[in-house]
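Problem: given the chain below (150 residues), write out its structure.
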Amino acid sequence: MNIDFAFDDVDIIEEGTLIAVIGRQRLQGEESIIQEKSILNAADQLVFMVSENQYKGVLDGSIPVLIQSLNWMKTAEDIEDFYLGDAEVWRRPSIGQAGPLGGDFPVVTREGHNILDVIFTSPIKSLAEVTESLNKIEGVVDHGVISKYP
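Solution.
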């Protein structure tokens, strides 16, 4: 696939690095973080559409993490242990209220994965470091961090 330009409205962008986060909002219908990222990664040039309050030097909030549905609790515990004291890990529900266990009806993506929201309780120092650490955790399939630059 050859894509010259890709345009995307991202949830937040890290000032200075231009690393962005997608998927913080509830997915609608057939949306897929994996598909969105594959298109963005295939593009030669990216254009992120953000409002001024989404372009930040100090990041906070959550990062969506796609995980294998089987043994999801072990993956959630590993992520929580890694960010001990700096983040809470909640499984995203498809209906009802969010919580650590995601209720009786967790989101299942069209690829068959659950989504964990890693909710940072202190400022996120570096999205690049978060990405690197998440990529090392067994059971993590992907996440909502977009970076075209090493």
